[in-house]
Design brief:
Layout: H1 2-20, E1 28-31, E2 35-38
Antiparallel strand pairs: 1-2
C-alpha cells in the first residue's frame, strides 16, 4: 500500500508541474539588445 501512495504522489506532483508551465506556441522573435522573445 505504501508503494501505491508513493506513485500517486508522483503522478499528482507531475501533473501540478506541467500545469504550472506557461503555454507558448513556440514562435519567437529576436529583438536586438533583448534576445529571443516569445511573440504569441
Amino acid at each position: 500500500m505504501k508503494k501505491f501512495g508513493f506513485w500517486l504522489t508522483l503522478v499528482i506532483l507531475g501533473l501540478a508541474l506541467t500545469g504550472c508551465q506557461s503555454q507558448h506556441s513556440g514562435s519567437r522573435e529576436y529583438i536586438p539588445g533583448k534576445g529571443w522573445m516569445h511573440n504569441d
